Input
Amino acid sequence: MAKNPFNVKIENDLYHFFNLIPKMKNAKLYLVALVLALAPLFPITSNAILVDGSNAVDMLGFYDDNLENPSPAWDKVDPNVRNGGTNRLGISISTSQAALDSVNNRYFLLDNGNNRVLVYNLNPDNTFPDKIPDNVIGQPNFYTNTSAVTQSGLNSPSGLAYDAINNRLFVSAGYGMAGGASRVMVYDVSTIENGQDAIAVLGQANFTSTDSAVTISGLHGPRGLAYDAVNERLFVAQQQGHRVSIFDVSEITNGEPAVNVLGQVDFTSSTGATTAAGLSNPLGLAYDSGKGLLFVSQHGFGGASGPAANRVSVFDVNVIANGEAAANVLGQTLFTTGTGAVTQAGMSGPRGIAHDPVRDYLFVSNSSRVTVYDVAAITNGENAIAVLGQADFTSSTGGSTQTGLYGPSGLVYDTENDHLLVLDDSNNRVMIFDVATIDNGEPAVDLIGQYGDDLLNPEPVYTKSGANNAPGKLGFNIDPYYSSVVLDDVNHRFFVTDTQNHRVLVYDLNEDSTFPDRIPDYVLGQPNFYSNTAALTQEGMTYPRGLAYDSDNNRLFVSESTGANRVKVYDVAEITNGEAAINVLGQADFVSGVDAVTQDGMHSPMGLAYDATNQRLFVAQDEASRVTVYDVAAITNGEAAINVLGQADFETVDNTTAINRMRAPKGLAYDAESDLLFVTQASKHRVTVYDVAEITNGEDAIAVLGQPDFTSADALTTQDGMYAPEGIAYDPDNKRLFVAQTGFGGIRITAYNVAEITNGEAAINVLGQADYVSGDDSSTQSGLRYPTGLAYDATNNRLYVNDSGNHRVVAFDVAVANSPTEVAAQANGPNAAKLTWDANENLEETEYQVYNTSTSEVVATTTNTSAVVAGLTPSTEYTFTVRAISLADGESYVESEEVSVTTAALSTSITMTLAIGESAGFSFAGVGEAHTVAIDDIDDSTPEAPIAEMTITSEPVTVNLGVGSSETIDTNGDGHSETTVLINSVDTGSNEVNFTLSYVPMPSSGGSGLLSLPQTQTSTSSQTSQESATGETTASPSESESGFSDMGGHWADEYVVKLQGTGVVEGYQDGSFKPDDFVTRAELLKMVVEAFDIEEADSSDYPFTDIDSSDWFNYYVTTAYMKGFINGYPDLTFRPYAEMNRAEALAMILKASELNIVTQDLVTMFPDTLSTDWYFDYIMFAAEHEIVHGYEDGNFGPHDRITRGQAAKMIVVVMDILGR
Output
């Protein structure tokens, strides 16, 4: 065999192509898996469709512990939690404690208001490298504060002690709580994981028991802890038990018994007493390991909780006898007195204590101070030697300053740095004092828990006191009354009124008006983010309520109600924190705040709306029951209103339920296109609509929502009713009105189609509730609690809600539908086009319309993501869009970008793709009759070999074919099978079938059966000649060299002669060759094997179910299969008697030849052969090397059946290439 002269081998024939389909599907799965794996890194943002009761998609105000780019923490939302609640920076403490690990350099801070222990990794010298905790115990993260009686959870913890030798942390929990557990949890902190399990528990038999008990193993209100490292003893103060229990913790068994008790004579007594041996409300403990002394602070509660003590008892615990007497007392001169006193010797409510072992100092927190005692030699009732938190020993006023304290509790002494760390409860901070030398009332040198505006490198602020570092950037404090949000979609900013922090927060947005993060960038009304002072000044604010934005002039309008009664105007072209307003309405100056029902006055202004075209500002005034209108083209402070709605004049307050009256208007929305003003009236449970193109004072409303008429005012939780509406927003693109309702039992947001308004019309959607009759408030992702201000983002189809009762802003996706994306169109033959698109997150039941922009008509409607447009003209360009129809009203729609397609030219071979249920028309070139083809179903009972079920009309013919199968059918009903159907692929995922329809004309007498061509005269002879389908021209009939009776003068004679001479063909018994008969698969295979001298490759394993060893062609089929140039069909058949088409025959011949096939021109030579066809390379190669030629019309006819003569020519030409 000659060496193959070509370079590139074609790897796939028809059967390889089909075998690749499962692999391609797997590749798709791998890709999907990869996309899913990367999804958290590259979150997909898209608009969901508005569905009743749907979840919010974003939130401001409650976050996780990421300080750089916080994410919403939906389970954190609580109506009783303000300013964002628990976070990583702040603390919330009350009678708490801390511990210092000087060995491993860690500070443990008991943040008992958040049911957690914060762990700060320190520098080697025990100083703080930053103010951000590194780990948390008792919670799985830094933003939850759940109280839990579990192995990992904490409930009302109050005491801490650290064992440096064994790396154990002891945490007391459950003080004074019904079902509060009363236990001490033991943690292994050699390494710490957030929310880790405790390793042991004292006071309870297990981690889920909650009994308080005055027993040898039980605890009753455990508070302060102290640890004796030498003797491995743990001291546990119990406030309600009026005792200190001592446990041997060298080895701990859950619920083990105490070994000793102080304050009581036995383990079952619990009476508080101010005696030498007694204790009353013990809170804090400190242990002097050098002397073996235990210091016990006792509070001054008095009454039923035990007698007032106001003292520190000192016990010698080197050897303990149950109920032993104290050796000394501080704060009182006698053991039997307990009067509180703010003096040098006295105490008032002592709580925390700490011991300095080097100087033998004792620090005691009491009142709003820390007193310092020299206890080297103790005298009962001795004077303190110094005081912190106050300038002298007789002052006790709490303060939020660098020198002041307010209700301090737990104390920790740092011997390495001579620092005293003071848990300053009412200021929710830890003050750090340098006590190497002490000056009375000296300032703190550092602080933990109260910071400025820098979240990543927080700096101390000594004037703050709010729990959890509030106020700050991470939350809101919004009262359950009217508040607002507004979007600047020109300069991409978002404004929020944070009412009880007396400020407006400003968020810079991305260019598409989405949030780059959830951290505000600027603040108005305050000089910084950590101040919240109400101020009636040009810079300050007091209870800001409404907002409106003027994008043309970059002005922000802010209404202020209680005590201010004004609207301030800010220039926000560039914003500086705390900048001064440029104008004021409702007052003559910036320091006045009187309420007035006059033309230039205001009384409780609330919602605002701005008319950019006419530069008018609309102001809803709650207590004045009116809306006033101002010309703000040029503003003069305190200028008069130009119009009034809701009242007949500027001085009247008439709350009548009428067409021209109002009561308690709150929210406003303006429709610029129609000059309509929408006004919510909370007390009348309605929204009134005014035509404000030209305003007459006290004019009638033109429509009403929420009530059937203008004289009704019923509070209703129904689809057409309202209950205390306040917030309102208008969607100009889809003509929708959103109304926030705040009535008890009627909490929700309803949406209305206001393209045309009918009084009392029904809502089309509801948010905050699953239906129109529910109205309970909720703090969930889908719920609301007193929603007020609304803002609509037209760019992203989002509704922002100031959910004031939950102190948050939530965003809902409210798209009527999303614009279909990835729209593609392809010609589906000459008379149809197939469009496909991506649903872009639309709901499954969304309806789509295919719109022909050329004819301005809808040409297809479907709920699928593909459609076939039929009845088109061949070779014509069409342009379409795909519309997604709103589920809310069934009319509104959003539209895709345009896509164009040109239908195919008329041909005798048409390739199409249709899905189940789709149909399309077709007709062949030169044949006038039109037909329709439809996919009825796909039989996938055998997954590896699905069967397409299809019908072709006008004379209905049904065919059932698998991939690679073909059938020639009679579609005209004239008895002639003129249409061949070939199934190219069946996709059971998309339910699509790709197939080719080929026209088979009536064969002429003696013709090839493929094409009848007109006879032509040559220039030299009168004999006729006929061009074969391969393009050869030979003389008219004469005697053939082959001796076959029917080959004389036939164009294929020379090829048959060569094959006959090599023994490849023999002909029939009647002496004929029948060159124009169609060749079968078995016949062609025999010719190929013998022509190319393919050696036998025998096998006892017959690969095909329809081949028997006795069949004459068995040898050829088996040899070809073993040589690898045939594969058969997916159903394990070979179909030896099936006729072959030209593409199949060419592929078989070239595969058998083992030629390495490379094509020089990738541009198709034939209109009916596309580069995407499996046989493209075979045909291009064969054409380039003149193995085949096309038809006279320029087509190749790959699906036309091949004759014996044509096959002979293909084989002989290939033999010549191989040098045979």
User: Anything to note?
Assistant: The chain has seven helices and 66 strands. Residues 163-448 form a domain with the Neuraminidase fold (CATH 2.120.10.30). The chain has five domains: 163-448, 485-813, 817-904, 906-1000, 1052-1218. The chain has a mean pLDDT of 89.
